Structures are given as C-alpha cells and as structure tokens.
Amino acid sequence: MMTGAQYLASLQDGRTVFLDGARVHDVTTDAGLGQSARIVARGYDALHRPGPDARNPVFTIPRTAEELRARCELLTKHDVTLSLSAVAMALLTSSTELTHADPAAGERIQHWFDDCATRDVRFAELITDAKGDRMLAPSQQDDPDLYVRVVDRDSTGVVIRGAKFHTTAGPIVHELVVLPTKRMKPGEEQYAIACAVPADTPGVIQITSSHHARHGHPRDKPISAKLAIPDSMVVFDDVHVPYERVFLDGDVARSAVIAHSLGLWERLSGVAHMAHLGDQLAGMAQLVAEANGTAGISHIKDKIADIVIYATMTHACLEAALANSEVGADGMLLPSELYTNAGKLHAANHYAVMVRHLHDIAGGTIATAPSFADLANPETGAFVEKYLRGAKGVSADERLALFHAIRNMTADEWGGREAVSWLQSGGGLFAQRTVTRNHYDMAHAKATARALMEPIDD
C-alpha cells in the first residue's frame, strides 16, 4: 500500500493538465490541485498498512452483507476517490456478460483490477461524452469525435479520440476508465469502446475546474478544505491504448452493460453519502437554531423534523438496499437495484428542499457573515464579537463557524457544485426513476389491487 507521500510522488509523472487557462506542470504544488491532492494523501495515510501483503480495503470484493456494509461505511469516511472505485466494481460485475462476446475480456478486467490493487492506485470514471446535439445519435453528429471513438488500430491496440466530461478527480488519479455513455446501435461499433488509460499517457489532456478555497481565512471554508476535489474535461487526442487495457471493443449489443452496472454501484455510493449528508444537515440545522435562540419556535421545529425524516428515509433505503442484496454470477454481492435507485432518487430529488429549510432556519447571515479574519483583526474584532454573538452563552466565534460551514456546504462555489453533483451523479433522476419502476414488482401490486375488487364470498 502507498503512503500519502508516495501517492503525491506518483502524481509527478508529467501528465498534461490545464487549470484556469494555464498549464499545471506539477499538480502536487499547484495552489488548488495540490490542496486536493493532499486531501487524498491524508486518506492514503489513514488507510495505510505496512507489509507486502497489505491491501486497501476498497479493493475487497463484497461477498457478504457485512462486507457490502463495510464498503459503504468506508466510502463515507474518506475522500471521493475511494467512491470512484465504483467503476472497478462495475467492470467486475459486467465481466461475465462481456466475456460471452470476447473470451479475453474477463481476464483483462481481472488482471487490470489486480494490478490496480497491487499498485494501490486511484481511478476516475469517464462516461459522459461531449454529445453535441443531444437529439442526434453518435453516428449522426456533424463531428464524429463528439463521442469517444476508435479511429485506428494495429496489432498492439486501438487509438481513441474524443472527450469525456465531468471527470471527478481526473487530475489527481492514476487510471482513467473510459466507458460508453449508452447503448450503441449497429453501425456505431467505433463508439463501443471501454478501456483504462493511465493519466500520463501521451495525448491525454485534462482541462480542469477546481472548487478549492481560493482566498480568505482557512476557517471560512471548513468543508471544501476537507473535501474539494477537482473535475476535468478529458481530451483524448489520438491516444494509443494497448489491447490488454481494452475491455469492450465494437460490441454494440453489450455497450450499455458496464454503464448500467456503474449506475448501480455509483448510486449505492450516492445513497450512503446522502444518508450521511442528511445527518449533517439535521445536525447543522439544530445547532444553528440553538445558536440563534430559535430552536423552540414551531415552524423551525417542523423544518428540522422534515430534515430528520429525510435523513431517516435515506438511511432506510440504504438499509433496504443492503438487506435485499443478491449474489451475482461471479459470487459478488450486489445491492438491490430497486432500493438503491429509489433511495438515490429520493435523496437527490428532495435535497434542494432540505437546503432551503436549512437556509430558512439559519437566516441571511450565512451569505453575509464577516470573515474569521475580521474577528481576528484588532480594529474590527471587538465589533464582530459584540454583534455576532447569539443566544445566551453562544459566542461570535461559534456562530461564525456555523454560518461559514453552512455557506460552504450549501451556498458558495463548493456548495453549488455539490448541489449539481448530487442531482446528476449516477445518471440523473430520470434514469433512477426508470430503473426503480423496472425493478418494482408491478405484477404483485396489480394482484393486490385486483384482490380488493373481488366480491365477498358469503
């Protein structure tokens, strides 16, 4: 297993990364990307175990309910790069079906997974293409590169061209895992490509957005300082991928298999994270109500109760997804499709309302609060201390901490990014609604309805 220092050193590989219009020659020393890399490094140190046989628990294949639960708990305790291991679980889940068309696919996936576990690397999932006109199929676009495709091949591998969006952690991981964004049709074989590409491969260009704390007192951004991870648009400018790293190549019939599997694992991670997030929202709402002296007001209590119910229902869906898990073809334990998708849909669909409740409870000072630097300034500190204190015994320091945490969590650059992420991650609400309906036992529901209509047999 790598230490944090070894992880940081592993990123100094000459990868091509741009941020804010400038080339970043070393992501570990950049003000923003370096901050994110150090977040991941702390996770490496927290999980590190010495010895040649040590293995990061994120690479454990869940085969029991306890192992599946442990995986969910692991993901909520560390940075998001561990959650991105969903793409590895998706490949393993898809392996059996992909092998039907390509007997070597399963071996390649397993070899790649074992190699990643041995090297203790992190990966990013690359699934969303540029798409161009969303009403047109890949083969109908005026530019054929708007979906990642194979443009050439030789005896050693394929050459891919195109771009993938929304690549969370792309600049600070080791492996970029490319998947088809949807089921391709006959005639679109060039777009049916799944492969793993090292981040430092020639021709891979990452154009990055960062949500780190760019200025102000460190305590003004307490959450993004712990969690902010960059996103990137990854361009493949005629990138060669060896066949041993290619998992799907031209098989349009199975081009959606991995994406569907990824949706399941990513949504399970989402439910686990949002259950934890629900607890954080409830706790923050109660704390700020107490600090403001409004915790006893009826409409405040009602809003906090709504957040509590939201958190409880999300936890319940997570528990149901784990309790109703099923064994897959290869012995891996898979969470329930029904409860995983229903839980993610519930949590994402109602998140904005819970944030609105929190804002209403906290008040406008979440947007206008002075900086902690103003509290520390001898010229202004006394005024901030005098006028920002709250209910009896609540200092200005405590209220400022609450206001800045809520703003950072829900209302600034990082909070806005998170709101979009919770909504869109795992394929968006429509996809989750569709999968939930497809896995619901409608035949049973119809039978219960018909039973109500049966006449009483006297």
Automatic annotation (TrEMBL):
Domain HpaB/PvcC/4-BUDH N-terminal, residue spans: 3-248
GO molecular function: oxidoreductase activity, acting on the CH-CH group of donors
Keywords linked to the UniProt accession: FAD, Flavoprotein, Oxidoreductase
InterPro entries: Acyl-CoA_Oxase/DH_mid-dom_sf, AcylCo_DH-like_C, AcylCoA_DH/oxidase_NM_dom_sf, HpaB/PvcC/4-BUDH, HpaB/PvcC/4-BUDH_C, HpaB/PvcC/4-BUDH_N
SUPFAM superfamilies: Acyl-CoA dehydrogenase C-terminal domain-like (SSF47203), Acyl-CoA dehydrogenase NM domain-like (SSF56645)
Domain HpaB/PvcC/4-BUDH C-terminal per the UniProt entry, residue ranges: 261-453
Any single Pfam family the record assigns to this protein: HpaB
Identification of the protein by name: Unannotated protein
Organism of origin: freshwater metagenome
